[in-house]
Write a structure and sequence with these properties.
CATH architecture: Roll
Number of strands: 8
Number of domains: 1
Distance between the termini: 26 Å
Structural class: mainly beta
Strand content: 35-45%
Strand order of the largest sheet: 6-7-1-2-5-8
Low-confidence stretches: none
Mean pLDDT: 85
CATH class: Mainly Beta
Shape: elongated
Number of helices: 0
Length: 97
């Protein structure tokens, strides 16, 4: 699916996890009042950031990590009619374990 897509630099491509559509009590939450997704799964890593001496900085996340993301940040990327978010690696808030 994403074979031909490779982010550049310290970019990270994240597949968003949609917010729950039902409450704990089983009530349906209308789409108009659901929050923006704040969690996602890392699906692609960029080439890495190059330091001043030419060395590459390692990513703190790996493909498959579940991460917390800023609610209104990142760039939308549409691939095969599916929307992903792309972030700089330093914009990711935390790894969820």
């Amino acid at each position: 699916m994403l074979i031909n897509y490779k982010p550049v630099g310290d970019k990270v491509l994240v597949d968003l996890i949609p917010p729950k559509s039902h409450t704990a009590g089983g009530l349906l939450v209308p789409e108009s009042v659901r929050d923006q997704p704040v969690e996602g799964v890392v699906v692609k890593l960029g080439t890495g950031q190059t330091g001043r001496k030419g060395d590459r900085t390692e990513f703190q996340v790996q493909v498959g990590d579940r991460v917390l993301i800023p609610r209104f940040d990142g760039e939308d990327v549409v691939i095969n009619r599916r929307t992903f978010k792309q972030f700089n690696s330093h914009q990711l808030l935390a790894i969820v374990q």
